[in-house]
Amino acid sequence: MARTSPLHWVGVVFLLIASILLLITTISAPVIGDIAILKVMLTNQSTIRHSSVTFGTFGHCVLDVAPAATDQDYCYPKSVGYSPAAVMAQIDGTGFSEAASKSADGLTYAMILHPIACGIAFIAFLLSIGAGVVGSLLGAVVAALAWIITLVAMAIDFALFGIIKDHVNGDGSGSNAYYSTGMWTILAAMILLFLGMFIVLFTCFSARKERKRGGSYKNRADVYDNGVGYNGGYNNTTTTTQATRTRRKRFGLF
Fold this sequence. Notes:
Number of helices: 7
Structural class: alpha+beta
Distance between the termini: 57 Å
Helix content: 55-70%
């Protein structure tokens, strides 16, 4: 792409923002305790505020643990796969069926897709920075892969934390579970990845079509410029000379 369309850079920026949003979901609790995919406000409270449980990609944290005079936060070790149903059963006495508990536990292993999607989205951004048609096309393909993984990860997140949310809010304990920052960042990333992929792919094919059209005009001009066609008028002198030589040859003049 000799000249990159401004619209192309809009798509590139969308891919960058999407990778940052996926990073936020990835570093949710227990990496950063205050960032959660699902947050549960408990009924017990410290002297400062209600205690809460934050669930993230690799585990959970318990914030503002009562009855401390100052807020105390406890984040548990990071792991791929954990037991959110068991955590809420222990902390809040929430009851889960065996099927719901096992389903929730199993789905937590799929949250490894968060960092994978984040990395692939960033690679798509780097590929799309290149002004070449090939680079942009590869960027769009990789962005499509990142979008599919993000879509699957988001569906799993809603299914997993939907189970926990429904049980916590329906057990009558007074605790309140709701989707938090990490859920909305992955949703926004999914939308931006789709838009970025579409824009980069569209501008890639538009640039390729423009280049072909420009090449066609150039070839036509070259045909006219080499004396056969029109170049500020037909070359009548050359044509007349060639005709004269042909006649002389025919009559054996030389």
